Amino acid sequence: MNVRIPTPLRSYTDGEAVVSVDGADLTAVFAELDRRFAGIRFRVVDERGRLRPHMKVFVNDEAVRDLSVALAPTDEVTIMQALSGG
To answer: The domain 2-81: what is its CATH number?
Structure first.
């Protein structure tokens, strides 16, 4: 499946905006991402295995917070990072 990477995290993926990974659920997807791009998982998932508050994940345009959601090989995952400023 394709995973869309937000601009602030592309330094981990050598600038790639979309990467292909396999995984039965989001937990597996983030484990595979971290195996290939060391350190990226920690930016999205905290030490308790939950999405960080400023991160959003969409599966086929549907927002999800549960990392155990089952995925199909044709699903598309989008990672978004909330930006703030003044």
So the answer is: 3.10.20.30
Query: What would the pLDDT profile of 27-58 be if each residue is shown by its tens digit?
Result: 999 999 999 999 999 999 999 999 999 999 99
| 57: CB partners within 8 A, 6+ apart | 26, 44, 51, 63, 64, 65, 77, 78, 79, 80
User: How far from chain centre, in Å, is Cα 73?
Assistant: 15
C-alpha pair distances (Å), 31 with each of 3, 28, 37, 67, 85? 13, 5, 10, 11, 31
pTM value is 0.91
